[in-house]
Amino acid sequence: IQEEIKLLHRAHWDETEEHRHRLPFDPDYATFARYERAGRYVLFTVRKENRLCGNCAMYLDRSTHTQTLLATEDTLYLLPWVRTGRVARCFVGYVENAMRLFGASEIHITVKTVNKAGIFLRMLGYSHVENGLIKILETENVQF
User: N or C terminus: fewer CB in 10 A for the chain?
Assistant: First the structure.
């Protein structure tokens, strides 16, 4: 669904990644496919009226600290017009159940401060355990 998902990825970038808008938006779909073939990446989608309107991408890996399988969210996004009712809750539940079936012991999800996703996920039982910080490095005047 590479061509179809590009518009969804762009909408996600425009809505939640303003802090990175000085960087190029250039998803590497060949790498996503390579990780998927290796069993290290799973893409879930939501459709309404046969239109792609949401996705959740999870990376799977063994924790070097616990040796258990962990799932790390790369993307969790629903278009605004589909964020009604129980769609988001059901979608996250579906992803969680799939991760259990894969054998994952934990799910790591990051949320941006520009929306209320963190509040929503805490309502679903997720815990706020860390704060992430980002700095966009300037490439001009780099000296060693």
Answer: C
Q: Are 109 and 100 in contact (CB under 8 A)?
A: no
Q: Residues 23-36: pLDDT tens digits?
A: 999 999 999 999 99
Which ranges in the chain belong to alpha helices (H)? Answer: 2-16, 29-37, 87-102, 117-123
Q: Concatenate the DSSP letters of all residues of 15-28 into one string.
A: HH-GGGTTS-----
The angle at the Cα of 87, spanning 40 to 124, to the nearest 5 degrees, equals 70
Distance of alpha carbon 96 from alpha carbon 87, whole angstroms: 14
SS3 43: strand
Residue 120: name the closest of 77, 81, 72, 71 by CA.
77
Q: Which two tokens stand for residue 103?
A: 């054998």
Handedness of CA 137, 139, 142, 144 (dihedral sign): positive
